[in-house]
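Translate sequence into structure tokens.
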Amino acid sequence: MSLGFGHLARIGHLYPSGGLCDYEIQLMAPDGVQFLTTRLPFRNTGIADDLGLVENLEQHARLLADADVDVIAVNCTAATLLVGPDRIRERIGAATGIDSVSTIEAVLAALRAAGRRAPTPRAGTVPTPAGRTRCRWPRAH
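Result follows.
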């Protein structure tokens, strides 16, 4: 377990406000890696809530930039898939000048590193409590 002193890396962590496990990522971090968390407003699961989570993304990312982080990790798979990880990365980069990664991008990178490929979605829709919505990103990856 790392105590979280970031002499090797400081990672900004954008995390849903209703989440309860943001401490786990620091527990898994190697010594010298520090995670700094800023919460994004999120109380319910649904398309409107997922989109609302990233509504003021730039403001929250700038708070992490103030802490001089090396990279920003966005931890909300549904929201980043709805908006598109590429667009999330563009927005954070434009606001802070800092690279970012989303959960789904990290999962796909881990699959590639393990010599696996991501499952192919059966259709261009994603079931949600609010119905079905178009998923904009995974088809090309």
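Note: The first strand starts at residue 9 and ends at 16.
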